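If you are new to this repository, start here. Below is one unmodified record pulled from the training split, so you can see the exact layout before writing a loader.
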Amino acid sequence: MSKLDQSKLPAHVAIIMDGNGRWAKMRNLPRVEGHAQGLESVRNIVTITRELRIPYLTLYAFSKENWSRPRAEVRRLLELLGIFLENELPLMMDEDIRFRVVGDIKDFPKKLQHQLNAAMQKTAGNKTLSLNIALSYSGREEILNAVRLLLKDMDKGHITYIDEKVFQSYLYTRDIPDPDLLIRTSGEMRVSNFLLWQIAYTEIYVTDTLWPDFREDAYTEALKEYAKRERRFGSVKENLSGRA
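And here is the target side for that same chain:
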């Protein structure tokens, strides 16, 4: 990490954490063992992100589509989420980490909903790192939900016009800046319905490393690659000199 140029770090890193099942299969282990090992990568990457003073980290943990997985696997994933919240909440408070959910909490069992809401409330005042976990998340559903809410508010006369800023205020990520860097592990070349609106100008980095093996060295390589990128946001280099 000491070799990283702090001035070229992203302000918001988003990660599609993929490869837990393949990691377990390669070792003749049940898929759930891959998820358990993946949780160790979550702890490692959260710790490094905070140490680097990157203020936003969003992790794609569980999609809407993941509910269709075998029931035993889903049950174990929910158990691991509960254990993560129970074990990590004291650390989040000690390390000034704010915990937030991006997605539809209502899809989860009541006990887990209570845990998620309690963690968000307790850490709401923390400021060093915003840890956003995408749970029961779908990028298409997020956009549709925003449209529905917009139409309701237009009917009530609360808004009279729509532009990008107004639309963004109806997304799950309404007070979170768009990601600067999206990392996908396991080598798959797709965005899997993740932050479809928010990644319009996000730099994308794909690594063959499976999520359970994605630790400090792999994360550092992704950040170093990002530091080399020249971001143009649809413009040309000379027109960016005055960009904030």
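Two things worth knowing about this chain: The chain has a mean pLDDT of 94. The longest strand covers residues 129-137.
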